[in-house]
Automatic annotation (TrEMBL):
The chain crosses the membrane at residues 84-108, 120-141, 147-167, 188-211, 217-237, 249-267. This is ABC transporter permease subunit. It comes from Pseudomonas karstica. Its main location: membrane. Belongs to the binding-protein-dependent transport system permease family. Pfam families: BPD_transp_1.
Length: 282
């Protein structure tokens, strides 16, 4: 065996090497800073439009909305409404995920499962979740169960379709590698199909989250009280009836902020630690 050795490279003469980018370019590469600038510009445009409109009842200014938001947080009213909504949302979202994966696993395992998934998604995916509110009220009454029912419907079909499409896109090479290792049934799904189809699954989770969040707010706007307490949608509805438009906008701002936090802190972090780290997504 040849003995290992190292060759020390001499610096190239006459060539200037930039050790780091200028501060402006380094700052511009920060995604949080770019998104923050966009939000600042939108806030300035909002304030300008409200001052031009000069009608607090129709369009409160950004500063008025911020004061209403701050008062709601300080008094604890907004936080309590948000907690009520999020508890219901998490329950419906998790149940929808479990049912979607069960249905998709059955679809990739048997022909009957594929026919069942195709038939059910064709029937129920075009049906808006909010259209099921009358049936939910008849079956489950006024309370959390009715909200969870419509949330499961809003999550289930979008996630099942994306997951099944991701499973179909798994290359035959990976499938054969899993079979060579003796993987079958649920182990084949867990160790081969799910990691390979993770980009599509994450897309389905994002879509399901967005559908569930807006369905929950819409449902609370219609019959909002959950076990005697209203959530964030009910908070918006009540203040609209009492003509507290600044509080209505504060409630809408909370809906948007929660969406941004979940998107940037939960889904983006999970993508960075999985599919982007594995080189499956840019």
């Amino acid at each position: 065996m040849r003995q290992e050795y190292e060759i020390t490279l001499e610096p190239l003469p006459g060539i200037r090497v930039e050790r780091e980018l200028p501060l402006r370019q380094r700052l511009w590469q920060q995604g949080w800073l770019r998104k923050g600038l966009i939000l600042i510009v939108l806030a300035i445009l909002w304030e300008a439009a409200a001052r031009y409109q000069d009608n607090d009842l129709l369009l409160p200014s950004f500063l008025q909305t911020f004061h209403a938001f701050y008062d709601g947080i300080a008094s604890g009213e907004l936080l309590s409404k948000v907690s009520i909504s999020l508890v219901v949302l998490v329950k419906g979202y998790l149940i929808g995920i479990v049912l979607a994966f069960a249905l998709t696993t059955l679809a990739v395992s048997t022909q009957l499962g594929r026919d069942l998934l195709s038939t059910l998604t064709s029937m129920f995916n075009p049906l808006p979740a909010i259209a099921l509110l009358p049936l939910a009220l008849l079956w489950f009454g006024l309370g959390q169960n009715s909200l969870i029912f419509v949330l499961v419907h809003s999550v289930l079909w979008a996630l099942a379709l994306n997951t099944y499409s991701g499973f179909l896109g798994v290359s035959e090479t990976l499938r054969m590698a899993g079979r060579n290792y003796g993987l079958k049934g649920m182990r084949f799904v867990l160790f081969i199909l799910i990691p390979a189809a993770l980009p599509s699954i994450l897309a389905g989770l994002k879509i399901g989250w967005a559908f569930a969040w807006r369905t929950l707010i819409a449902a609370e706007l219609v019959f909002g009280a959950t076990s005697g307490k209203g959530g964030l949608g009910w908070y918006i509805f009540q203040n609209r009836n009492e003509l507290y438009t600044d509080k209505v906008f504060a409630g809408l701002a909370v809906v948007i902020l929660i969406g941004l936090l979940v998107e940037n802190l939960v889904f983006d972090t999970f993508e960075r630690l999985t599919v982007k780290r594995w080189g499956m997504q840019r």
